[in-house]
Amino acid sequence: MTQNTKPISVTFDRLSTFISIALARAGLAQADANRVAALMAEADLQGSDGHGVIRLPQYVKRIRSGGINTRPNIHIATERAAMAVVDGDNAMGHLVMSYAVDLAMEKARTAGVAWVGSRASNHAGPASLYVRKPVENNMIALYFAVGNANHLPPWGGMEMLLSTNPIAVGFPAGSEPAIVLDMATTVAAYGKVKAKAKRGEQMPEGWMIDRQGKPLLDPQRAEEGFLVPIGGHKGYGLALIVGLLAGTLNGAAMGRDVVDFNHDHATPTNTGQSVLVIDLAAFAEPAVFKAAVDHLVRELRNSERLPGVERIWLPGEQSHLKRQKYAVEGIPLSVGQVNELSALALELEIAPLV
User: In total, how many domains does the chain have?
Assistant: First the structure.
């Protein structure tokens, strides 16, 4: 008999509900579980499958090991008119960043621009989640984070002292989809490596190298090598700068202080993140700006293409289309992932996802 490897589709609401029940059973307050679950399911809805429900078993293990504060006091540690540093009190990172983004938006409405950093946070899912809300409110947003495990050595080195340190930037548009850039400072985020391993797939050449500098293609052997920075030494430099802005500036972990949450489920990670929000109204009439973005998007999309290129894509367009498609057809999950979630449901004594 041929094993069925066809993905299994689930609705956004079903996935969000399952995650919420699991997180609450693990120990989160129900309101917090609901908020984190919605953001995790949104990650899968937009195709960020390395940061969605795939992380649930890991989160549950961390919560049950005492590595997450399930009743946190997320609060402002210091602030001025256009900035603040948020102490996450070792809460789930999704909760800390939701708080930070709301605070940054509130300050930007008054000051025109606001920078809010966080410390004592945790892994918060894909970076793009935290620029979308400002974008939906006629604001530009930039997000920076220190990754939750070091997978990148300094250029020319072998000791992994840096992480994927992601960046997201969002610009509102008019009738076109918003421009949303979400990228790691490595060729691939480690979550994509984990997703490949879950699906039993090989990695493309260029994602990782081994300790001899040769391509590493088997995601099951990921611990034997390093992620590759984008643009060689330039990506290494960018990872360092992002880490300084999101980690060091906020009093959060960087370098050897970064805790590998893939292996250590109990030690607080002291993850650092930062968000910069710009209120369009402080610079221009929002409708005029968004019309200009639409015009530029169409210029780029309709520009002359190389032979064999069917379409020129703008940052965020493919995620936008996946959101539309998956909202109708359901979010696809691999059979292996569903089996793992079924095992987790059995462990937590809750109903399975499917």
Answer: 2
Maximum distance among all Cα pairs of the chain, rounded to whole angstroms? 66
User: How many angstroms separate the Cα of 349 from the Cα of each of 5, 32, 78, 167, 226?
Assistant: 26, 20, 42, 38, 38
Question: Considering only CA atoms, which of 228, 259, 34 is closest in space to residue 146?
Answer: 259
Same domain, yes or no: 102 and 244: yes
Determine if the pTM surpasses 0.70.
yes
Distance CA 343, CA 149 (A): 26
Q: Report how far apart the first and last C-alpha atoms of the chain are (Å, whole number).
A: 22
Question: Do 87 and 150 share a domain, yes or no?
Answer: yes
Whole-angstrom distance, CA of residue 140 vs CA of residue 238:
21
Whether the Cβ atoms of residue 261 and residue 58 lie closer than 8 Å to each other: yes
pLDDT tens for each residue of 148-200 = 999 999 999 999 999 999 999 999 999 999 999 999 999 998 888 988 887 88
Q: Are residues 6 and 48 in the same domain?
A: yes
pLDDT tens, residue by residue, 179-190: 999 999 999 988
- Which residue has tokens 């995790």? 40
- 58 and 88 share one domain: no
- 57 and 79 assigned to the same domain: no
